[in-house]
Design brief:
Strand order of the largest sheet: 1-2-3
Shape: globular
Largest sheet: 3 strands, antiparallel
Order of helices and strands: EEEHEE
Distance between the termini: 21 Å
Number of domains: 1
Radius of gyration: 13 Å
Low-confidence stretches: none
Mean pLDDT: 85
Helix content: 10-25%
Number of strands: 5
Strand content: 15-25%
Length: 92
């Protein structure tokens, strides 16, 4: 299992839950954008990292594109609280 985070240089990473807690740069664009959106929503001082909606983005079908979830413990949807998603592709 992995945990999404942001390095000090603003790059989204995945961190392993168990030793040796391997840190890997996120290669999937959709996951990277979701991590950035989530962190920006959760921590207001990271607001500058909030992604802008690209041309190929589509409205998140979960929760009517609100970016909010009634099921998540933090209230943020899988779209990272952005209300939109991008196709999953390699490269960020």
């Amino acid at each position: 299992m992995l945990l999404g985070a942001i390095r000090l240089d603003g790059v989204p990473v995945e961190v392993g839950y168990e030793a040796p807690f391997k840190v890997m740069v996120v290669k999937d664009r959709a996951l990277a954008i979701g991590i950035l959106g989530f962190c920006a929503a959760r921590f207001p001082t990271l607001g500058a990292l909030r992604p802008t909606r690209p041309a190929d983005a589509y409205d998140c079908s979960l929760w009517g594109g609100t970016g909010r979830s009634e099921n998540a413990s933090d209230g943020i949807c899988l779209c990272g609280g952005l209300g939109w998603m991008v196709p999953a592709t390699g490269g960020v």
